[in-house]
Amino acid sequence: MLPFFNKSHFNFVLFINHKLRLMKVLVTRFIVFILIIIASIHLYQEEHSLKNKHWTYEGETAPEHWAEIEKDSDCNGRNQSPINIVEINTQLVEKAKDDLNIHYSPFTFINSVVNNGHSIQFNFERGDSLQYKNKVYHLAQIHFHEPAEHTINGIRYPLEIHLVHANEDNSYTVMAIVAKEGIESDIFEFLESFLPIEVNDEKTIHEPLDLTTLFPKDKSYFSYKGSLTTPPCSESVDWIIFKEPIIVSVEEVLKLKKNMPKDNYRNEQPLNDRIVELHLR
After folding, report:
1. Which of 118, 150, 165, 279 is labelled catalytic?
2. What distance in Å separates the CA atoms of residue 146 and residue 157, rounded to the nearest whole number?
3. Mean pLDDT by 10-residue block, N- to C-terminus, for the chain (281 residues)?
4. In this structure, are residues 181 and 256 in contact, taking their beta carbons and an 8 Å threshold?
5. Total-model pTM
6. What is the count of structural domains for the chain?
7. In a 3-state reduction of DSSP, which class is residue 84?
8. Domain range holding 269?
9. CA distances from 135 to 92, 126, 216 (A)
10. Is 118 a catalytic site residue?
C-alpha cells in the first residue's frame, strides 16, 4: 500500500528548500561583498600610509624600501650610489687628462648648521667652488655618514664626509672623504663646537672656515657617474672619492654619532656597466 501523499506538504518543503538556497546565495554574496570592502579599505590604508611615510635608515622605511616610498624617485635606477670601489678594476686616467680643479678659499663662510633628522649638515655661503669636466660647481653644504657609504676594496671606514657642489643645471659634483680613527682633527673640533643640535633645529654661524685643511695629503681620487645617496636618488651626480682617508679621533666620531641616526648610510648599489676611474696626483 502506498503511503499517503500530501501535495501541500510537498509544496511547502519545496518552498522552504528554495528559500534556503536563495538565502545561501544571498549570504555568500554578502560575505564576498564584505570581504571586497575590507580588502579595499586595507589597500587604501596601505597606500595612504605609504604616502605619509618618510624615508629613514631603519625598519619599513629603510633604504631597501625607498623606491616604494618615493614613487617618483630614481631610487630603483641603474646608476645608483654608493658603490664598492675595487681598485684593480678601475681605469687609470693620465694626469694630463685630469680635469678637476678645486677653488677653495680660507675665507668662505659657514652660514649655518642643521640637524635635518638624517645627518648633520653645514650650509655654506657662496665662495668655494670647483671646476670639473668644463663646468663650475659651487659648494652648497657638507654632511656626514657614519659609517661610510662608499667602500674601498671592501673596507667600510667609520665616517664619510660629503662636500656637495651644485651648478645651474641642477646637477652635482660631490667630493667624498672617508675617515679613520686616530689623532684629533682641528677642523672637526671647530665643526663640532656647534654641536649638539636637536633634530629639525638650525643654528646660524656666519664664521669663515678653510676647508682645504680637510683634504688628505694624497689628492688621488676615484670618479664615477652616480646618484644622490638619499631620496630622490637623482642620477645626476659626478662622484669624486678621495683614495686616502683622513684621520679623526674616536671622540669626534662619537660626538657626531650622538647627533645623527644610527647607521645613516645606504647599502652598496650595483655597479652595472659603469666605469670607475682612478686619478693619481
Report:
1. 118
2. 8
3. 54 63 68 58 44 84 95 96 98 86 94 97 96 96 98 98 95 98 96 97 96 96 98 97 98 96 97 97 89
4. no
5. 0.82
6. 1
7. strand
8. 73-279
9. 22, 16, 24
10. yes
